[in-house]
Amino acid sequence: MNTTTAEPRGPLSGVRVIELAGLGAAPFGAMMMADMGAEVIRVDRYNMPDFMAFSEPRFDVMGRNRRSVALNLKREGAVEAVLGLVDTADVLLEAWRPGVAERLGLGPDVCLARKPSLVYGRMTGWGQSGPLAHAAGHDLNYIALAGMLYPLGEPDRPPRSPMNLIGDFGGGGMLLAFGVVCAVLAARQSGQGQVVDAAMVDGAALLGSMNWGLYAEGRWQLERGSNTNDCAAPYYSAYECADGKFVCIASAEPQFYALLRSKLGLADDAAFDAQNDRSHWPALKAQLTALFRSRTRAQWCELMEGSDVCFAPVLDWNEAPKHPHAVAREAFIDVAGVTQPRPAPRFSGTPVPTPSAPVAHGADTLALLREAGLSDARILHLQQAGAIGPVLAPPDAAGA
Protein backbone atom coordinates (compact mmCIF):
# COMPACT_ATOMS: atom_id res chain seq x y z
CA MET A 1 0.00 0.00 0.00
CA ASN A 2 1.39 3.38 -1.01
CA THR A 3 1.22 5.75 1.94
CA THR A 4 3.10 8.58 0.27
CA THR A 5 1.33 11.91 0.78
CA ALA A 6 1.09 13.96 -2.40
CA GLU A 7 2.57 17.42 -2.36
CA PRO A 8 -0.05 20.18 -1.90
CA ARG A 9 -0.97 21.81 -5.19
CA GLY A 10 -3.56 24.42 -4.24
CA PRO A 11 -7.05 25.15 -5.63
CA LEU A 12 -5.70 26.97 -8.71
CA SER A 13 -3.45 24.13 -9.77
CA GLY A 14 -3.62 23.74 -13.54
CA VAL A 15 -4.13 27.47 -14.23
CA ARG A 16 -1.26 29.06 -16.16
CA VAL A 17 -0.72 32.81 -15.89
CA ILE A 18 1.59 35.07 -17.89
CA GLU A 19 2.37 38.20 -15.87
CA LEU A 20 3.82 41.19 -17.68
CA ALA A 21 5.81 42.56 -14.76
CA GLY A 22 4.63 45.78 -13.15
CA LEU A 23 4.65 47.45 -9.74
CA GLY A 24 2.52 47.12 -6.62
CA ALA A 25 -1.00 45.99 -7.36
CA ALA A 26 -0.54 43.54 -10.24
CA PRO A 27 2.36 41.63 -8.65
CA PHE A 28 0.28 41.28 -5.48
CA GLY A 29 -2.64 39.83 -7.45
CA ALA A 30 -0.27 37.50 -9.29
CA MET A 31 1.29 36.46 -5.98
CA MET A 32 -2.15 35.59 -4.60
CA MET A 33 -2.86 33.38 -7.60
CA ALA A 34 0.59 31.78 -7.43
CA ASP A 35 0.12 31.14 -3.70
CA MET A 36 -3.06 29.24 -4.56
CA GLY A 37 -1.21 26.91 -6.91
CA ALA A 38 -1.44 28.69 -10.27
CA GLU A 39 1.69 28.51 -12.41
CA VAL A 40 2.70 32.14 -12.84
CA ILE A 41 5.38 33.09 -15.37
CA ARG A 42 6.64 36.63 -14.97
CA VAL A 43 7.87 38.49 -18.04
CA ASP A 44 10.48 40.83 -16.60
CA ARG A 45 12.28 43.66 -18.34
CA TYR A 46 15.73 42.88 -19.68
CA ASN A 47 18.43 45.54 -19.78
CA MET A 48 16.17 48.27 -18.44
CA PRO A 49 16.32 50.02 -15.05
CA ASP A 50 13.88 48.71 -12.47
CA PHE A 51 12.22 51.24 -10.16
CA MET A 52 12.44 50.28 -6.49
CA ALA A 53 14.48 47.15 -7.31
CA PHE A 54 15.37 44.95 -4.33
CA SER A 55 19.02 44.38 -3.47
CA GLU A 56 18.43 40.60 -3.58
CA PRO A 57 15.58 38.65 -5.20
CA ARG A 58 14.64 36.98 -1.89
CA PHE A 59 13.41 40.30 -0.48
CA ASP A 60 10.83 40.65 -3.27
CA VAL A 61 8.14 38.80 -1.29
CA MET A 62 5.44 39.53 -3.86
CA GLY A 63 7.64 37.83 -6.46
CA ARG A 64 7.52 34.43 -4.74
CA ASN A 65 6.28 31.30 -6.51
CA ARG A 66 7.27 32.50 -9.99
CA ARG A 67 9.50 31.60 -12.88
CA SER A 68 10.94 34.53 -14.80
CA VAL A 69 11.78 35.27 -18.40
CA ALA A 70 13.50 38.60 -19.11
CA LEU A 71 12.78 40.32 -22.43
CA ASN A 72 13.25 43.73 -23.99
CA LEU A 73 9.85 44.08 -25.62
CA LYS A 74 11.08 46.89 -27.87
CA ARG A 75 13.52 44.59 -29.66
CA GLU A 76 12.69 42.43 -32.65
CA GLY A 77 11.24 39.04 -31.82
CA ALA A 78 10.52 39.67 -28.12
CA VAL A 79 6.78 40.26 -28.54
CA GLU A 80 6.43 37.13 -30.63
CA ALA A 81 8.13 35.20 -27.82
CA VAL A 82 5.58 36.52 -25.34
CA LEU A 83 2.75 35.56 -27.68
CA GLY A 84 4.21 32.06 -27.79
CA LEU A 85 3.86 31.94 -24.01
CA VAL A 86 0.32 33.31 -24.27
CA ASP A 87 -0.61 30.41 -26.54
CA THR A 88 0.03 28.06 -23.61
CA ALA A 89 -1.72 30.17 -20.94
CA ASP A 90 -5.13 30.63 -19.36
CA VAL A 91 -4.47 34.19 -18.19
CA LEU A 92 -2.42 37.22 -19.19
CA LEU A 93 -1.92 40.03 -16.67
CA GLU A 94 -0.72 43.53 -17.57
CA ALA A 95 -0.55 46.74 -15.56
CA TRP A 96 0.45 49.39 -18.07
CA ARG A 97 -1.37 52.59 -18.96
CA PRO A 98 -4.23 52.09 -21.42
CA GLY A 99 -2.95 51.68 -24.96
CA VAL A 100 0.62 50.63 -24.14
CA ALA A 101 -0.03 46.91 -24.62
CA GLU A 102 -1.82 47.64 -27.89
CA ARG A 103 1.11 49.68 -29.21
CA LEU A 104 3.51 46.85 -28.40
CA GLY A 105 1.32 44.31 -30.21
CA LEU A 106 0.21 42.59 -26.99
CA GLY A 107 -3.27 44.06 -26.65
CA PRO A 108 -6.38 41.98 -25.94
CA ASP A 109 -7.52 41.89 -29.57
CA VAL A 110 -4.26 40.25 -30.66
CA CYS A 111 -4.08 37.87 -27.71
CA LEU A 112 -7.73 36.79 -27.78
CA ALA A 113 -7.52 36.21 -31.53
CA ARG A 114 -4.74 33.72 -30.87
CA LYS A 115 -6.34 32.21 -27.74
CA PRO A 116 -10.12 32.84 -27.63
CA SER A 117 -10.42 31.33 -24.13
CA LEU A 118 -7.77 33.65 -22.68
CA VAL A 119 -8.60 35.82 -19.67
CA TYR A 120 -6.87 39.16 -20.20
CA GLY A 121 -6.49 40.88 -16.82
CA ARG A 122 -5.75 44.63 -16.88
CA MET A 123 -4.68 46.45 -13.71
CA THR A 124 -4.67 50.26 -13.65
CA GLY A 125 -5.31 53.03 -11.19
CA TRP A 126 -8.01 54.96 -13.06
CA GLY A 127 -9.39 52.18 -15.27
CA GLN A 128 -9.39 51.64 -19.03
CA SER A 129 -11.86 54.48 -19.67
CA GLY A 130 -12.80 57.89 -18.30
CA PRO A 131 -11.16 61.34 -18.48
CA LEU A 132 -8.30 60.33 -16.15
CA ALA A 133 -7.56 56.97 -17.77
CA HIS A 134 -4.25 58.09 -19.31
CA ALA A 135 -3.03 60.24 -16.40
CA ALA A 136 -0.23 59.16 -14.08
CA GLY A 137 -1.14 58.39 -10.49
CA HIS A 138 -0.39 56.39 -7.39
CA ASP A 139 -2.35 54.65 -4.65
CA LEU A 140 -2.84 57.88 -2.70
CA ASN A 141 -4.45 59.60 -5.69
CA TYR A 142 -6.82 56.73 -6.45
CA ILE A 143 -8.14 56.33 -2.92
CA ALA A 144 -8.52 60.12 -2.66
CA LEU A 145 -10.79 60.24 -5.71
CA ALA A 146 -12.72 57.20 -4.45
CA GLY A 147 -13.63 59.00 -1.22
CA MET A 148 -11.57 56.64 0.91
CA LEU A 149 -8.70 58.94 1.90
CA TYR A 150 -10.88 61.76 3.25
CA PRO A 151 -12.07 59.88 6.39
CA LEU A 152 -8.58 58.82 7.52
CA GLY A 153 -6.74 60.75 10.22
CA GLU A 154 -7.36 63.37 12.88
CA PRO A 155 -10.18 65.93 12.49
CA ASP A 156 -7.90 68.98 12.65
CA ARG A 157 -5.20 67.69 10.29
CA PRO A 158 -4.91 66.59 6.65
CA PRO A 159 -5.92 63.00 5.87
CA ARG A 160 -3.30 60.33 6.58
CA SER A 161 -2.23 57.69 4.08
CA PRO A 162 -2.96 54.08 5.14
CA MET A 163 0.29 53.10 3.35
CA ASN A 164 -0.78 51.58 0.02
CA LEU A 165 -3.09 48.97 1.50
CA ILE A 166 -6.42 50.29 0.18
CA GLY A 167 -5.52 51.16 -3.41
CA ASP A 168 -2.65 48.94 -4.48
CA PHE A 169 -3.44 45.81 -2.55
CA GLY A 170 -7.04 45.60 -1.27
CA GLY A 171 -8.73 47.61 -4.02
CA GLY A 172 -6.15 46.70 -6.67
CA GLY A 173 -4.30 43.39 -6.64
CA MET A 174 -6.90 41.51 -4.63
CA LEU A 175 -9.67 42.80 -6.89
CA LEU A 176 -7.65 41.79 -9.94
CA ALA A 177 -7.11 38.26 -8.62
CA PHE A 178 -10.80 37.89 -7.77
CA GLY A 179 -11.90 39.19 -11.17
CA VAL A 180 -9.49 36.98 -13.06
CA VAL A 181 -10.54 33.83 -11.19
CA CYS A 182 -14.20 34.70 -11.89
CA ALA A 183 -13.39 35.06 -15.58
CA VAL A 184 -11.43 31.79 -15.62
CA LEU A 185 -14.47 29.98 -14.20
CA ALA A 186 -16.66 31.57 -16.87
CA ALA A 187 -14.20 30.64 -19.62
CA ARG A 188 -14.12 27.03 -18.47
CA GLN A 189 -17.89 26.88 -18.86
CA SER A 190 -18.23 28.79 -22.12
CA GLY A 191 -14.83 28.46 -23.80
CA GLN A 192 -14.85 32.21 -24.25
CA GLY A 193 -12.29 34.49 -22.64
CA GLN A 194 -12.69 38.18 -21.87
CA VAL A 195 -10.99 41.32 -20.62
CA VAL A 196 -11.02 42.07 -16.89
CA ASP A 197 -10.77 45.84 -16.26
CA ALA A 198 -9.58 46.12 -12.64
CA ALA A 199 -9.13 49.72 -11.46
CA MET A 200 -7.87 50.78 -8.06
CA VAL A 201 -10.28 53.72 -7.96
CA ASP A 202 -13.17 51.25 -8.35
CA GLY A 203 -11.80 48.75 -5.87
CA ALA A 204 -11.04 51.39 -3.23
CA ALA A 205 -14.62 52.65 -3.39
CA LEU A 206 -15.90 49.08 -3.21
CA LEU A 207 -13.98 48.48 0.03
CA GLY A 208 -16.01 51.28 1.59
CA SER A 209 -19.38 49.71 0.75
CA MET A 210 -20.54 49.41 4.35
CA ASN A 211 -19.61 53.00 5.10
CA TRP A 212 -21.48 54.28 2.04
CA GLY A 213 -24.57 52.65 3.51
CA LEU A 214 -23.96 54.14 6.94
CA TYR A 215 -23.50 57.57 5.40
CA ALA A 216 -26.73 57.30 3.41
CA GLU A 217 -28.56 56.38 6.61
CA GLY A 218 -27.07 59.34 8.47
CA ARG A 219 -24.93 57.20 10.77
CA TRP A 220 -21.54 58.25 9.39
CA GLN A 221 -20.20 61.74 10.01
CA LEU A 222 -18.08 63.37 7.31
CA GLU A 223 -15.77 64.96 9.86
CA ARG A 224 -12.66 62.86 10.35
CA GLY A 225 -12.24 61.26 13.74
CA SER A 226 -15.90 61.57 14.75
CA ASN A 227 -17.26 58.07 14.15
CA THR A 228 -17.50 54.84 16.06
CA ASN A 229 -14.84 52.92 14.15
CA ASP A 230 -12.40 55.70 13.23
CA CYS A 231 -11.00 55.90 16.78
CA ALA A 232 -13.31 58.70 17.92
CA ALA A 233 -15.28 56.43 20.24
CA PRO A 234 -13.47 55.92 23.56
CA TYR A 235 -14.32 52.20 23.47
CA TYR A 236 -12.94 51.75 19.92
CA SER A 237 -9.44 53.17 19.89
CA ALA A 238 -5.74 52.62 20.55
CA TYR A 239 -4.05 53.79 23.74
CA GLU A 240 -0.50 54.33 24.91
CA CYS A 241 0.73 52.33 27.91
CA ALA A 242 3.18 53.15 30.68
CA ASP A 243 6.10 51.68 28.71
CA GLY A 244 5.38 53.65 25.53
CA LYS A 245 3.82 50.65 23.80
CA PHE A 246 0.20 50.52 22.66
CA VAL A 247 -2.95 48.46 23.03
CA CYS A 248 -6.30 48.72 21.30
CA ILE A 249 -9.87 48.02 22.38
CA ALA A 250 -12.96 47.55 20.22
CA SER A 251 -15.68 47.00 22.81
CA ALA A 252 -18.56 48.12 20.62
CA GLU A 253 -21.33 45.69 21.59
CA PRO A 254 -23.05 46.35 24.95
CA GLN A 255 -21.90 43.09 26.53
CA PHE A 256 -18.29 43.70 25.49
CA TYR A 257 -18.47 47.29 26.73
CA ALA A 258 -19.81 46.11 30.09
CA LEU A 259 -16.91 43.68 30.43
CA LEU A 260 -14.44 46.45 29.53
CA ARG A 261 -15.88 48.65 32.29
CA SER A 262 -15.67 45.78 34.74
CA LYS A 263 -12.04 44.99 34.01
CA LEU A 264 -11.09 48.69 34.14
CA GLY A 265 -12.91 49.24 37.43
CA LEU A 266 -15.42 51.57 35.78
CA ALA A 267 -18.60 49.55 36.28
CA ASP A 268 -19.94 52.06 38.80
CA ASP A 269 -18.71 55.17 37.03
CA ALA A 270 -21.92 56.80 35.78
CA ALA A 271 -19.99 58.88 33.24
CA PHE A 272 -19.56 55.71 31.16
CA ASP A 273 -23.25 54.76 31.17
CA ALA A 274 -24.14 56.59 27.95
CA GLN A 275 -21.88 54.54 25.69
CA ASN A 276 -22.86 56.22 22.42
CA ASP A 277 -23.45 59.79 23.56
CA ARG A 278 -20.93 61.53 21.31
CA SER A 279 -20.95 64.66 23.46
CA HIS A 280 -19.27 62.65 26.23
CA TRP A 281 -16.69 60.93 24.07
CA PRO A 282 -13.83 63.47 24.43
CA ALA A 283 -14.01 63.43 28.24
CA LEU A 284 -14.30 59.64 28.42
CA LYS A 285 -11.42 59.18 26.00
CA ALA A 286 -9.24 61.49 28.09
CA GLN A 287 -10.07 59.41 31.17
CA LEU A 288 -9.21 56.14 29.40
CA THR A 289 -6.01 57.68 28.03
CA ALA A 290 -4.82 58.40 31.56
CA LEU A 291 -5.93 54.99 32.77
CA PHE A 292 -4.11 53.00 30.10
CA ARG A 293 -0.94 54.99 30.77
CA SER A 294 -0.96 53.66 34.32
CA ARG A 295 0.17 50.13 33.35
CA THR A 296 2.54 48.52 30.87
CA ARG A 297 1.33 46.78 27.75
CA ALA A 298 2.23 43.39 29.25
CA GLN A 299 0.10 44.15 32.29
CA TRP A 300 -2.90 45.09 30.15
CA CYS A 301 -2.40 41.93 28.10
CA GLU A 302 -2.43 39.84 31.27
CA LEU A 303 -5.69 41.47 32.33
CA MET A 304 -7.62 41.49 29.05
CA GLU A 305 -6.06 39.49 26.23
CA GLY A 306 -8.21 36.54 25.19
CA SER A 307 -11.31 37.96 26.85
CA ASP A 308 -14.48 39.29 25.22
CA VAL A 309 -13.33 42.85 25.78
CA CYS A 310 -12.15 42.76 22.13
CA PHE A 311 -8.58 43.64 23.00
CA ALA A 312 -5.20 43.30 21.31
CA PRO A 313 -1.69 44.60 21.81
CA VAL A 314 -0.47 46.80 18.95
CA LEU A 315 2.49 44.84 17.62
CA ASP A 316 5.30 45.95 15.33
CA TRP A 317 6.73 43.79 12.53
CA ASN A 318 9.31 42.23 14.83
CA GLU A 319 6.65 41.29 17.38
CA ALA A 320 3.71 40.14 15.22
CA PRO A 321 5.27 36.87 13.94
CA LYS A 322 6.27 35.90 17.50
CA HIS A 323 2.87 36.33 19.12
CA PRO A 324 1.57 32.98 20.45
CA HIS A 325 -1.54 33.15 18.25
CA ALA A 326 0.54 33.72 15.10
CA VAL A 327 2.93 30.95 16.14
CA ALA A 328 0.09 28.50 16.78
CA ARG A 329 -1.45 29.19 13.39
CA GLU A 330 1.92 29.33 11.64
CA ALA A 331 0.72 32.63 10.19
CA PHE A 332 4.24 33.66 9.19
CA ILE A 333 6.88 31.62 7.43
CA ASP A 334 10.55 31.93 6.58
CA VAL A 335 11.44 31.78 2.90
CA ALA A 336 15.13 32.17 2.06
CA GLY A 337 15.72 33.90 5.38
CA VAL A 338 12.89 36.42 4.92
CA THR A 339 9.97 36.37 7.36
CA GLN A 340 6.70 36.87 5.50
CA PRO A 341 2.97 36.13 5.75
CA ARG A 342 1.86 32.61 4.89
CA PRO A 343 -0.50 32.30 1.91
CA ALA A 344 -4.13 32.84 2.84
CA PRO A 345 -6.90 31.77 3.05
CA ARG A 346 -6.54 28.13 4.09
CA PHE A 347 -8.22 25.17 2.39
CA SER A 348 -9.16 21.82 3.93
CA GLY A 349 -9.25 19.86 0.68
CA THR A 350 -6.73 21.63 -1.54
CA PRO A 351 -3.97 22.91 0.74
CA VAL A 352 -1.53 25.33 -0.84
CA PRO A 353 2.15 24.54 -1.30
CA THR A 354 4.91 26.20 0.68
CA PRO A 355 6.01 29.28 -1.29
CA SER A 356 9.21 29.10 -3.27
CA ALA A 357 11.72 31.92 -3.01
CA PRO A 358 11.66 34.74 -5.58
CA VAL A 359 14.15 34.27 -8.41
CA ALA A 360 16.35 36.76 -10.21
CA HIS A 361 14.85 38.47 -13.24
CA GLY A 362 15.32 36.23 -16.24
CA ALA A 363 16.44 33.20 -14.24
CA ASP A 364 14.29 30.85 -16.34
CA THR A 365 14.53 32.59 -19.71
CA LEU A 366 16.10 29.71 -21.61
CA ALA A 367 13.81 27.01 -20.20
CA LEU A 368 10.65 29.05 -20.73
CA LEU A 369 11.47 30.04 -24.29
CA ARG A 370 12.17 26.43 -25.11
CA GLU A 371 8.83 25.47 -23.54
CA ALA A 372 7.18 28.09 -25.77
CA GLY A 373 8.52 26.20 -28.78
CA LEU A 374 11.45 28.42 -29.72
CA SER A 375 14.45 26.62 -31.16
CA ASP A 376 17.92 27.29 -29.83
CA ALA A 377 18.74 29.00 -33.11
CA ARG A 378 15.82 31.37 -32.64
CA ILE A 379 16.77 31.99 -29.01
CA LEU A 380 20.32 32.78 -30.09
CA HIS A 381 18.92 35.25 -32.62
CA LEU A 382 16.90 36.99 -29.87
CA GLN A 383 20.04 37.15 -27.77
CA GLN A 384 22.05 38.70 -30.59
CA ALA A 385 19.24 41.21 -31.26
CA GLY A 386 19.34 42.38 -27.62
CA ALA A 387 15.86 41.05 -26.85
CA ILE A 388 17.16 38.73 -24.14
CA GLY A 389 20.30 38.33 -22.11
CA PRO A 390 23.11 35.82 -22.72
CA VAL A 391 21.42 32.48 -22.18
CA LEU A 392 23.17 30.55 -24.96
CA ALA A 393 26.83 30.58 -25.94
CA PRO A 394 27.21 31.46 -29.62
CA PRO A 395 28.79 28.70 -31.72
CA ASP A 396 32.55 29.02 -32.16
CA ALA A 397 34.15 29.27 -35.55
CA ALA A 398 34.69 25.53 -35.75
CA GLY A 399 31.12 24.72 -34.98
CA ALA A 400 29.53 27.53 -36.98
Write the layout of secondary structure elements.
Layout: E1 16-20, H1 25-35, E2 39-45, E3 66-71, H2 78-86, E4 91-94, H3 100-104, H4 108-114, E5 119-124, H5 139-145, H6 165-190, E6 194-199, H7 200-207, H8 209-216, E7 236-240, E8 246-250, H9 254-264, H10 281-292, H11 297-304, E9 311-314, H12 324-329, E10 332-335, E11 338-341, H13 365-371, H14 376-384
Parallel strand pairs: 1-2, 1-4, 2-3, 4-5, 5-6
Antiparallel strand pairs: 7-8, 8-9, 10-11
Polypeptide structure, described:
There is one protein chain. The chain has about 400 residues and is an alpha/beta fold. The protein contains 14 helices and eleven strands. A six-stranded parallel β-sheet has the order 3-2-1-4-5-6, with helices on both faces. The chain has a three-stranded antiparallel β-sheet with strand order 7-8-9, with helices on one face. A two-stranded antiparallel ribbon has the order 10-11. A hairpin with a 5-residue loop joins β7 and β8 (about 245-250). α5 (about 140-145) packs across α7 and α6 packs across α7. The chain starts with 15 loop residues before the first strand and ends in a 16-residue tail after the last helix. The mean pLDDT is about 95.
Strand order of the largest sheet: 3-2-1-4-5-6
Q: Give the N-terminus to C-terminus distance in angstroms.
A: 55 Å
Class based on secondary structure composition and strand pairing: alpha/beta
- Please state the average pLDDT score: 94
Low-confidence stretches: none
Shape summary: elongated
Secondary-structure element pattern, one letter each: EHEEHEHHEHHEHHEEHHHEHEEHH
